[in-house]
Each structure stands twice: as C-alpha cells, then as structure tokens.
Amino acid sequence: MHLNSLPFFLFLIGGIFCQYDYDPVGYYPSEPDYGYAHPMYGPSTALCAPECNCPVTYPSAMYCDDLKLKSLPIIPSGIKYLYVRNNMIEGIEDNAFNNVTDLEWLILDNNHLENSKIKGKVFAKLKSLKKLHMNYNNLTEVVGPLPNTMDDLQITHNKISKINPNTLEGLVNLTVVQLQHNQLTEDSLSGVFKGLNSLLYLDLSYNKLSKLPRGLPPNILMLYLDNNQITNIPDEYFQGFKALQFLRLSHNKLTNSGIPSNVFNISTLVELDLSYNQLKSIPTVNEHLENYYLQVNQINKFPVSSFCKVVGALAYSRVRHLRLDANNLTRADLPQEMYNCLRMAADISLE
C-alpha cells in the first residue's frame, strides 16, 4: 500500500472515452473524445458543396469547418456525416436537409445557433440521425422534435435553462445525453428523461441544480452531477438504479446531515466522487466500491465501518484508490484495523 500517491483512472465504454487527470490541487474532467475520423484533405468528390471538402477516401462525409459560414451550405445527396464546426451560423432553414434525410451524424459545435432561428421541425426530417452535437452555441432550450433513431445528444456549453418535457419523448435508442455547462435547475428537468430506458450516460454537471433530479431512467451507468449546488440526497434516491457504476457529486454543498446513512450502499457502484464538499466524516459505501474520492472536505475521523460492516477472510472492502488529501486527517489518525479492511488498496492519498 502506497500512501500520498496520486491515482489515475481511465475507463472506456460504449465508444466514450472519459478521463480524470489528477494534480496536487484538484482534478479537471476532460471532455469525451469520440475519435472522429479526420481525413487527410486531398481531392474532394464531385458531389460536395464547393466550399467544403468530401474526401475521396471518405465520400459520405462532408467537412465544412472553420470557413466563417453564416448559413449551412447546400448538402448533396449521399452525405451521411456532416461537420460544420467553428463557423458563424445562427439559424437553420426548414429545408436545409431536404436532400439528406438519411443523414446520420450532424456536428454543429462552435457556432452562434439560437432557438428562434431554427425553423420548423427541421431535425425530425432526419429519419436516420444518430448523433447530434450542438456544443458551444447560444441555445436556451434543447432543440426538438428529434427522430427516435438518435443515440447521442450533446448540447453542452450553451445557455439552456428549459427543456420541454416532450422534447426527448420516444427516443428509445438514446444512450448518451450531455448537458453540462448550462443553466438547468431541477424544476426544468421534471419528467424530461422519462422512458429513456436505453440511457447509459447522463452528464448534468456545471448547471444550477440545488436538488437531485427526479425520474431518471433506471439503467443509467454513468451519472455526473458535479459542480452544482446540491445540498442533500433523499433517502433511497439511488435504490431504483439497476446498473449505476460511476457517480460524480464533487464540487457541491453536501454535508453529512444531508446524506442518509446507507444512501451510497449501492452494490453496482465502482466509482464515487464526493470531493470538494463539506463532509466531516466518511459516508458509508458498499464493499464492492473500487474508487472513492473524498479530497478537499473537512473529514477528521476514519471509521472503518464506512468501508466494512465486518472484517474477515471473505469480508473486506474492494477499494483500490482512496483520496483523502486536503482534509483534517494525518497518517496517525488511521486505525490499525483499516489495513485489514482495505487490503485491496493500492493508493491511499492523505497529503
């Protein structure tokens, strides 16, 4: 067992690459990288908008990035992957996708899109659409209606404060929803995710939540709620989740009085992040938890019962990485029986 080390954890799931990079001060969660194909720009195919590039080696993709466009180009039939990033587009006309109703990916990051300038039901026409990315725009609501073929919706770094409860209705294939860096409150999320039983990855970090949202689908695998204003967790809030493995609640306003005693006793949970809160003792977790982040709280005691109800030959915690740095604990505060309980631990950080 190595004290005072800095753990580094990577996981790869469902084509999403998520990473925590830790430094001595804190951590900075990076944006997921979907590994887009960036072809070597060479000769473009004949069926391409003249200002864009449709590589001969990847003819179903059209790249219109960094062109200072103020409107979408004419999209020829046959294009299935459209990249129009880093432009100046404010709106989308109702007929914009008439030639490409079988478009599968639409990537519109870093533009000036506004809800009032997106006409009609323009996205509903895209009967094969799987990925819609509209990060870094000026949207105040989640766009819709959307086709039920969608599996990946990203609208981060906008000004979204409202989601119509019907906007995501019927999107039974939706697996990924990223809404971080917006202005969402718990009231604006009421009923929004109902029926999304394929949803595995939900990121609501960097919003204005003061309470945990109700009505989340039971099959969520990764739930990120960090950097909000959450003060407490309702009793049995997580009991309806069947597969939750990764839970982030860092950078909130949680205190021990706002955390019921067994609320994190979740047998499926692999990683729990409660760092940067106002905790004075260690919340109890299930013995199957592997990564537990508690740095930068006010913790001043180390009860072994937080990790092990009993300790024995087959009864012990599976925690491998435990961060307790920037609390009120020293190595002398660690009870001797901790080492038998945490026999799997590779990293316990105190400073």
TrEMBL record:
The keyword Signal applies. Residues 47-81 form the LRRNT domain. It comes from the Eukaryota. GO terms for cellular component: extracellular space. One of its GO terms (molecular function) is collagen binding. Keywords: Disulfide bond, Extracellular matrix, Glycoprotein, Leucine-rich repeat, Proteoglycan, Repeat, Secreted, Signal, Sulfation. It is found in: Secreted, Extracellular space, Extracellular matrix. Pfam families: LRR_1 (PF00560), LRR_8 (PF13855), LRRNT (PF01462). Residues 1-18 form the signal peptide. Binds to laminin. Belongs to the small leucine-rich proteoglycan (SLRP) family. SLRP class II subfamily. This is Lumican. It comes from Eublepharis macularius (Leopard gecko).
